[in-house]
Amino acid sequence: MLGWEFPPYFAGGVGTVCYELTKGLRKKGVDITYVMPHGPEHVQSEHVNLLVADKELEHLGIQTHKVASTLTPYVSQDEYTRMLDAYGTALMGKGSTIYGTNLLQEMHRFAAAIQKVADHEVFDVIHAHDWTTVPAALALKQKTGKPLVMHVHITDFDKTGGEHADPAVYKIEHEGFHKADIVIAVSNLVKQRLVEKYYVDPAKIRVVHNAVEPTEHNLQVKQEQISPGEKLVLFLGRVTLQKGPDYFLDAAAKVARLLPHVKFIVAGTGDMLPRMIERASDLGIGNKVIFTGFVTRTEGDQLYQMADLFVMPSVSEPFGIVPLEAMQQGTPVIISRQSGVSEVLKHVLKVDFWNVDDLASKMIAALSYEHLHTMLQHHSTLEIQGFTWENPAQQCVDIYNEVLSW
C-alpha cells in the first residue's frame, strides 16, 4: 500500500483513512506493507509493516537529508511552491537534496525509491492512494506485474469546486486511473467525476464509502470564550474554496440577526482564512466568530462536544469524514448535498451549498426547536454505530480477490 502519510506521522485526513482501513484489513487477515516517502528514523505500527522510502534508500547506501516535511495529501503544486519559497531555507538547510524543487519532482523521487523497496518485499496487490502516489504505483506495477488498485479520495477538480484542474496534475491522475486495474472511489460523486472528467470506464470503478472509528465520549471540555446560555455552531475543515467557508459565514450572519445568543467557530486553516476573517468583520459578526486555526484530532472531538450544531457546507466534497465524527460526539449535523457522505447519511439536515437562505433557516430550526435538535441527536447517534471500518475493509478484500482471479 502506497500513501503519503500514516498516523502519527504527518497525519492528515487521507492518512487517517489509510490507518483505519489498514486496521480493518488486518482484522480480515490481510498482511500489509505500507510505504510512505518520508518519516522519522524508527517508524513502527502495530498492525502493518510500515516502511519509509527515504530510509530504505539510506539502507542501500544512498545519502539523504533529514528535514521536516512540507507535504500533505491535499497540497497543490502552487501551494507546494509557496511553501518552499516561504520555508525552504529553514526546512531544508544548505545543500539538502531530499525534496525536489516542486511537488512533481518529489513524487518521482518516491517512484524511484519504491522500486528499491520492491526488491525485498513480497506482495500480491498494489493499493495506492490519490494522485501523489501514481508515479510510484505505476513504476511498481511495471516492475513487478502486480495488479494495481487506485484509491481516489479526491480529484483535482474537487479542489476547485469542479471548475477546473491543474493540467500537470490532471495528466498524472488520468494516467493512473486508466492504467489501474480497478479504481476505488470513495463515493458515487467521485465515480461520476471519474467518468465525466477523466473518461474512466465505469465498469472498472468500485465505490467504497469511508467509515469512522468508534470513540468514547469521555473528554473534558473547557468552554472558554463561550458565555453561559450561548449556543455554538461549528465549521471544522480546511478553510478553502472546496469546503465553502464563505457560505458558512454568510448563513451565520443571517442566523446572528435572529438569534443573538449564538456564536460560530471556524476551526482549521487554509488559503482563504485571512479573507474569511475579513469577511466576518464586513458582515458585522466579527465578535460572533471564533477562528481557532489548526486543531488536533483530540481538540476536534472537544469542539464537536461543545457544539450545538455542526455544519459542512462543502462546494465539492468527495466524501467527508467530519460529519461522522460530529455524529459520534452526539452533535446534530447539516451537510451539503454536494458531498459524498450525503449519499449514505439519513438522520442529518441537507442543503445545497449555494442556498444560504436554506442553510440559515435549517441552522435556526436546529438551534431553536428542542424536539428537532433532540431527534437529530438521538437518531444520528444510532445511525453512526453502523459506520464501522469492517464494511469498507471487506469490500477491499473482495476487490483484491477479484483482481487476483483475472
Structure description:
With 406 residues, this protein is an alpha/beta fold. The chain has two domains: 13-211 and 390-404, 3-Layer(aba) Sandwich (Rossmann fold), CATH 3.40.50.2000; 231-384, 3-Layer(aba) Sandwich (Rossmann fold), CATH 3.40.50.2000. Helices cover 43% and strands 13% of the residues. The chain contains 15 helices and twelve strands. It has helices at residues 13-27, 53-59, 77-92, 103-117, 134-144, 156-159, 167-179, 188-198, 245-258, 273-282, 297-306, 322-328, 356-368, 370-384, 390-404; strands at residues 33-36, 49-52, 126-129, 148-152, 182-185, 205-207, 231-236, 262-267, 289-293, 309-312, 333-336, 349-351. The strands form three sheets. Strands 9-8-7-10-11-12 form a six-stranded parallel beta sheet, with helices on both faces. A four-stranded parallel beta sheet has the order 3-4-5-6, with helices on both faces. Strand 7, helix 9 and strand 8 (262-267) form a beta-alpha-beta unit. It is elongated, with a radius of gyration of 22 Å. Residues 59-73, 86-100 and 218-222 have low confidence and may be disordered.
Poorly predicted runs of 5 or more residues: 59-73, 86-100, 218-222
* CATH overall fold name of the largest domain: Rossmann fold
Structural class: alpha/beta
How many domains? The number is 2
Using only C-alpha atoms, the radius of gyration works out to 22 Å
Please count the helical segments: 15
CATH architecture of the largest domain: 3-Layer(aba) Sandwich
Percent of residues in helices comes to 40-55%
- Amino- and carboxy-terminal Cα gap: 20 Å
Major sheet attributes: 6 strands, parallel
Order of helices and strands: HEEHHHEHEHHEHEEHEHEHEHEEHHH
